[in-house]
């Protein structure tokens, strides 16, 4: 796969360039901006191809991103799909890049980051204007010491592992991307496109970034965080048989009467004792646990095509409004918006 290096361009006064892309408006600052993307064996293809496409598209609207692909040794690499990727060279401290992007891989965090890969991120980052990671590329940044004391994110499935490996880093598992100073991290693979659009907007303003988003048919900014993409709750089961009896009851019949008093009656214990059991074993309250189970049930019902009102009733919510409030708090979107995104890719046939 050849690198996406921008060719020579003609500049106007003061380093500006007229916009030539479709829908472009006016003139932007088109000073060359050097972007290095670090790739390696097993790299996720979309992690670097998505952001590269954003930068390439931005060039059509007047930007001047010069993109190079680098590997730790300068040798070509093999992506996660088995596609051979030619690179422009090896990582080195010179020349300095304006932006360094580190792509992710399914190999990490299942395995420790090799020292040579961590060094390959650390060396260009030392002189870069900003450093960013896509998806599990955050683990490479962490291994290189580039996330110490910083806020960061990664794919929701492995956010807990990043927090364990980088205890001084404050991991934000619901964020699509996070900026902390000159360090940027993003969530799952397509979130790399969100991050790249944010970088373009930072460099050239919202109008050019908006033009790029429209050309690529993507959102300028997605509503909600990663939670809307995550799987239903899969926490560890309670240790005590008594509490497991309660959680099994709620899971099997989420629309039942699960008030604190009723749940305590099932075990013949006080409400205070039941509350303490939930706190000690599940780090939550009985009411919040019931709400979470009902929320997961409602999401599954919406995925199956039920209306939001039907989902609220079947999942045990008192009303649609109560379900809407929970969706707003957890996902920052409405049940209807969630359903439009995730219920089905099929289109109804007329006739």
Question: Explain this structure to me?
Answer:
Helix content is 41%, strand content 13%. With 351 residues, the protein is of the alpha/beta class. It has a seven-stranded mixed beta sheet with strand order 7-4-3-8-9-13-12, sandwiched between helices. Strands 1-2 form a two-stranded antiparallel ribbon. Strands 5-6 form a two-stranded antiparallel ribbon. Helix 1 (45-60) runs parallel beside helix 5 (191-204) and helix 2 packs across helix 3. Residues 1-27 and 344-351 have low confidence and may be disordered.
C-alpha end-to-end distance: 45 Å
| Class per helix and strand makeup | alpha/beta
Shape label: elongated
Average of per-residue pLDDT values: 85
Topology:
Blueprint: E1 16-18, E2 27-29, E3 33-38, H1 45-60, E4 65-71, E5 77-78, E6 84-85, E7 89-90, E8 99-102, H2 115-125, E9 130-133, H3 137-143, E10 151-152, H4 159-165, E11 170-171, E12 177-180, E13 183-186, H5 191-204, H6 206-216, H7 241-252, H8 260-267, H9 271-282, H10 286-303, H11 308-315, H12 320-331, H13 335-342
Helix pairs in contact: 1-5, 2-3, 5-6, 8-9, 10-11
């Amino acid at each position: 796969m050849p690198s996406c290096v921008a060719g020579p361009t003609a500049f106007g006064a003061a380093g500006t360039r007229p916009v030539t892309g479709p829908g472009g408006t006016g003139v932007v600052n088109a000073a060359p901006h050097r972007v290095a993307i670090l790739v390696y064996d097993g790299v996720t293809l979309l992690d670097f191809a998505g952001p590269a496409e954003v930068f390439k598209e931005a060039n059509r609207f007047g930007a001047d991103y010069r993109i190079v692909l680098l590997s730790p040794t300068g040798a070509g690499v093999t992506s996660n799909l088995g596609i051979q990727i030619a690179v422009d060279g090896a990582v080195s401290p010179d020349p300095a890049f304006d932006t360094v992007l580190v792509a992710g891989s399914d190999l990490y965090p299942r395995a420790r980051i090799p020292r040579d890969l961590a060094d390959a991120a650390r060396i260009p980052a030392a002189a870069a204007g900003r450093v960013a990671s896509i998806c599990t590329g955050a683990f490479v940044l962490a291994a290189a010491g580039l996330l110490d004391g910083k806020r960061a994110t990664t794919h929701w499935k492995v956010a807990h592992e990043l927090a364990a490996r980088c205890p001084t880093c404050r991991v934000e598992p619901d964020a699509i991307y996070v900026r902390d100073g000159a360090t940027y991290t993003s969530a799952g693979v397509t979130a790399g496109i969100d991050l790249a659009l944010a970088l373009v907007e930072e460099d050239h303003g919202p109008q050019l970034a908006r033009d790029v988003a429209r050309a690529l048919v993507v959102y300028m900014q997605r509503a909600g965080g990663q939670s809307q993409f995550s799987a239903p709750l899969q926490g560890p089961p309670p240790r005590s048989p008594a509490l497991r009896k309660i959680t099994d009851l709620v899971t099997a019949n989420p629309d039942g009467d699960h008030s604190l008093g009723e749940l305590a009656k099932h075990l013949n214990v006080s409400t205070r004792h039941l509350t303490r059991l939930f706190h000690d074993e599940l780090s939550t309250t009985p009411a919040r646990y019931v709400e979470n189970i009902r929320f997961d049930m409602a999401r599954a019902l919406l995925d199956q095509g039920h209306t939001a009102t039907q989902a609220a009733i079947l999942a045990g919510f008192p009303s649609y409004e109560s379900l809407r409030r929970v969706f707003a708090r957890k996902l920052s979107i409405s049940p209807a918006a969630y359903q439009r995104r995730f219920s089905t890719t099929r289109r109804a046939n007329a006739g």
